[in-house]
Amino acid sequence: MLDAKIPAGPLADKWDNHRFSVKLVNPSNRRRFEIIVVGTGLAGASAAATLGELGYRVKVFTYHDSPRRAHSIAAQGGINAAKNYRNDGDSIQRLFYDTIKGGDYRSREANVYRLAQVSNEIIDQCTAQGVPFAREYGGLLDNRSFGGAQVSRTFYARGQTGQQLLLGAYQALLRQVRAGTVQLHRRSEMLDVVVVDGRARGIVVRDLITGEISAHAAHAVVLATGGYSNAFFLSTNAKASNATAIWRAHRKGALFANPCYTQIHPTCIPQSDDFQSKLTLMSESLRNDGRIWVPVDPDDTRPPNQIPEGERDYYLERRYPAFGNLVPRDVASRAAKRVVDEGRGVGPRKNGVYLDFADAIRRLGRDVIEARYGNLFEMYERITAEDPYEVPMRIYPAPHYTMGGLWVDYNLMTTVPGLYAIGEANFSDHGANRLGASALMQGLADGYFILPNTIADDLAPRLGEKLVPTDHPAFVAALDDVRDRVRRLLSIGGTRSVDWFHRQLGRILWDYCGMARNRAGLEKAISEIRSLREEFYTDVRVLGDGETLNQSLEKAGRVADFFELAELMCVDALHREESCGGHFREEHQTEDGEALRDDDNFSYVAAWEFTGVGTEPKLHKEPLVFEYVKPAQRSYK
């Protein structure tokens, strides 16, 4: 049985009491500890900057040429916080409840309540940094609504909130680089974790420019490397986003929790052809003013502006009148799939639904809509050559975020002592479905406020402990293993590109472990993934060599890890005989097609132990105990 180390006491007091009870490291002693942070998105940059500010010696690694290129910049819509500036009934308790309910009662109460508490501190921190949040006429910070909530709690910076928040974290990070407390290693990809006597003691990285493979030691290692939606090949994630860091940690003993919990975002530009390599997100914030609909008649080929109101089906408003177009993402995505499967999809490939702003433009005026969403409308027009001010956008769900990740306890430590996972790299806060605008909230909560408090509890007893030298046998073995993997990939000399294999893997996952799943499909997926993986290791063609910049080699290593992770995703989805949040098993649904949970048998976190490639992983369970929220069938009607 897994121990999440959740503090005792009333829910509202757990975090404050825990901060008082954890061990501390004296300010003058912090420079005696070295911490490695992998990743420079919102979670990684904020953690590295804060730890450096506290006085620890920090090494931070990114495979980008600048931390500013982290995928966090792609977050558009906003960040949640329970400030209640709108005086519309919001509170820490309501944010906590909405998040638990939105995740379909598959997350820890203690973690979620802490996230809601810390949310208000994040806004204060980022405003002090100069993040240009939108403001009302009188100068107060503005809010808008997001899915799964009936209050306006989302702070935003037009349609580029993630970018502005990352610039704030980036400037804090670079300040510490200049101060000498943080060493920034650019264009360096982590390829393994070094474990000595059961504890994480460092990492192995490859310089993406020179090909040099080197080892780095530390007293603690923090992974802030994001999620694994790119396992689907087509996703909203940046092309370089990958799961290698967390997967290599998993292979070294870190349990992987709830890998089947993947989020399909309902508001993306539909795929335009079979050779597309990436999908583009259209912010959920657009659902504040846009109305989603399809023609009632599947054979209606008229332009959308010529279809009268009576012949349109505003299906979200019809099915979910209380929340309308702002239902949670999993609900909106399945509803879109349902109408497209009925043959009522729109566009050249009939693979989309309309997101229409005509009513909002008539009601508020074009200037208001342009002020709120102008950059998003411009991006849509550049990609589709269609003007959303004049015709509705076309949208369809796409892989976007992963609620699964490395299992962590209340202190954000994995099952490998000394190894932490923060942000999207862990599983901790969102259950089976993340509410919109909560990813930025969790990343910054973990990096700015939670990890800097909890990591001291593990480091304090180790005062005076020296770093393990990088010529230790465990470091040497990890270096040799990485070099062997590189040589193996380069020596295959097959006939098919890495992208071909990745695309095939993505199709298997999307078809059988995407928005809808069933036993037969998942069993078929596992078989096909194993066969495709065997073919990969005999027929992939990796160009170039390992001594220079080689993007083919980079992709090959990442796709090799995606094969193993994809199989675990299907194994987890197969074992979970229920529907909850983003995990929708067709065998388990209500009469009207909603997710049907099985709380008696599956109210737990499924944390998987790596037992070898091609062998059945071992399941560990963390029971979910609900003291303050009573699990119920979700309803947004």
Question: TL;DR?
Answer:
Helix content is 37%, strand content 14%. With 637 residues, the protein is of the alpha+beta class.
Descriptive report:
The protein has 637 residues and is α+β, with helices and mostly antiparallel strands. 37% of the residues lie in helices and 14% in strands. It is built from 16 helices and 19 strands. It has helices at 14-21, 42-54, 92-102, 109-129, 161-179, 244-251, 315-319, 329-344, 358-364, 366-384, 439-459, 473-491, 498-513, 519-539, 551-575, 599-602, and strands at 34-38, 57-61, 79-80, 154-155, 182-185, 188-196, 199-207, 213-217, 220-223, 256-257, 262-268, 291-295, 312-313, 353-356, 393-402, 405-406, 419-421, 604-609, 618-623. The strands form 5 sheets. It has a 5-stranded parallel sheet. It has a 5-stranded antiparallel sheet with strand order 11-15-14-12-13. α2 packs parallel to α5, α9 runs antiparallel to α10 and α13 runs antiparallel to α14. The chain is globular. The two termini are 37 Å apart. The model has no long low-confidence stretch (mean pLDDT 97).
